[in-house]
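This part of the workshop introduces the protein records we will be handling. A record pairs a protein's sequence with a compact description of its fold. As an example, a complete record with its sequence and its structure tokens follows.

_____
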Amino acid sequence: MCRRRGWTSWSSSYAFLAVCPSRQLLDRISDKWVVLILCGLGGEGAEDPGTPAPMRYSELSRLLAGVSQKMLTQTLRSLERDGLVTRTVTPTVPVTVTYELTDLGLSLYRTTRQIRTWAQDHMDDVQAHRDIYDAGA
């Protein structure tokens, strides 16, 4: 954890400090692929929206238009390392690999869902502001 000048407790993070490890976590969870993977595993691309469910790698790949195999693999590994998703290998022919949100991942998904929804709901407003800004530049 990080210590802010004047604080006596090490139990609180202070992300404004350059040396705070929570900055690395913020960098990870603010990535667009992380947000979209969490939303996908949270059930937002499923037949029953909003119900978290395990997904196979190929399902995630199809859901996340534009993600490369390398980026999807790297992002899933980092999410597994951070304890946000679990990876389950089932010895079938061919081998079946599924990913699922952990309790920790589910708690983060609830926040990322709100961010994704806000982005979708306000993209037209943001684009209008960009157009105005760019016209004046």
Remarks:
- Residues 90 and 96 are 5 Å apart (CA to CA).
- The chain is about 55% helix and 10% strand.
